[in-house]
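Inputs:
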Amino acid sequence: MSVLQNAARTPEGVAVNGFVLMPIVDKCEGCDRVREFDAEKFCSSYPAPERKWAEGRCNFATHVKGDAKAAAKVNPLKASKRAAKGR
Ligand code: SF4
């Protein structure tokens, strides 16, 4: 994993160019934008990963595909009911 560029430890926390960064969240694990600094992990693209995920999938994430497929997935319970009806 790459090291966070231009990072510095400040009284407010780890900062890059004056912006204090929040650590990544669980959902960020595996993303190519995760950077390490001082044994903590941060996002190279967004200072507050938690907020990025609060509204659904992070749109910068490199490790998760769009959720269009998940939405199109057949609900197994409904599918079995449909199959039972057809019998
Ligand atoms: S780009 Fe999104 S998923 Fe990747 S580390 Fe940053 S906040 Fe997390």
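The chain has a mean pLDDT of 88. Flag for discussion at group meeting.
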